Amino acid sequence: MRFTFLGTSSGAPTRTRNVTALAVRAGPGRRWYLVDCGEGTQHQLMSTPLSGHHLGAIFITHVHGDHCYGLPGMLSHAAISGRTQPLTIVGPAPIELMVRTTLSASDAALPFEVEFIDVALRRQLSFDDFTVDVFACSHRVPSYAYRFTERITRNRLDTQALQAAGLPRGPDWGALQRGETVRLAQGRELRPEDYLLPERSPLSAVIAGDNDTPALLDEACRSAQVLIHEATYTDDLLNDRRARYQHSSAGQVARFAHSVNLPNLVLTHFSARFGSHAARSPSIHDVAAEARNAYAGNLFLAQDLDEFELSSTGALTRSTTATRATKRPKS
């Protein structure tokens, strides 16, 4: 499973961070899924191999502009990229009104159908690569988290055993994968049950919208390998702003992740007040230190255009794919 952060700022963009958007892929293939679509998301795509033509579906966590104002542009981008197949948008009901009104007012004619699904009416959805479960968050408006779980449809070949048996990679491997017995020229038979590994458990990742109560995601995270969650503030800033803004602090999310033994945690959606210089507080380094003080697992602070990969063993690693000449703080 792969994640590409197209925006990691909250509220408004900064010089180094765009507003919220996250691309999710099941593997190295072209099809991808978008969670939230802040303004400028289509521009961020220019620094990635992702294309609106191969977009599987869009998921919006809530109606605030830094999570959805990029939708009309994203749909136009998909049209320009040659898309003709229907596109599904999952999100709160007002998202449909916003998109249809904007497209009508701007005389935009899309060459594909758009299907809207009201997230409040669905608790599980099925797509080509993922089963997606929906969980309610706590924010000033209805906000949701999406748990993406791989759809694994077949067993894996034991390639080491095949190589030890002297069977080179080729059509016979495919036959074994399909459950067929392979008969070799020497009269030997290779049975699929001897060369198919047990199906592994599917990977799951929880991607949350704005949320001031991480514990609401307890059930979602119990079966997940990674949580991607906003950390708009640190604890001290949260104490001054929580009643009005209803966001989480880095420490709050980290303490929750520790309580459910979550192996991987990625923080994002940072307030613009957190700069990159460690000597000038508040800084993004304060966010990292607060989270690390409460959580002993695999912790990351996302940066725009970072790409993460969740391996089949549940280990999360990061490789920065940004092409911009911007010096980024380390977490």
Annotated CATH architecture of the largest domain? 4-Layer Sandwich
* First and last CA, distance: 22 Å
Strand element count: 19
Give the CA-based shape: globular
Determine the strand fraction and express it as a percent band.
25-35%
Total of helices: 10
Strand neighbour order, sheet with most strands: 6-5-4-3-2-1-18-19
How much is the average pLDDT? 91
Poorly predicted segments: 322-331
**Domain module tally:** 2
Q: What fraction, in percent, of the residue positions are helical? A: 10-25%
* CATH topology category name of the largest domain: Metallo-beta-lactamase, Chain A
Q: Would you list the SSEs in sequence order as H and E?
A: EEEHEHHEHEEEEEHHEEEEHEHHEHEEE
Alpha-carbon Rg, integer: 22 Å
Notes on the protein architecture:
The chain has about 325 residues and is α/β, with parallel strands linked by helices. It has 2 domains: about 1-150 and about 200-320, Ribonuclease Z/Hydroxyacylglutathione hydrolase-like (Metallo-beta-lactamase, Chain A, 4-Layer Sandwich), CATH 3.60.15.10; about 155-195, no CATH class. It contains 10 helices and 19 strands. The strands form 4 sheets. An 8-stranded mixed β-sheet has the order 6-5-4-3-2-1-18-19. It is globular, with a radius of gyration of 22 Å.
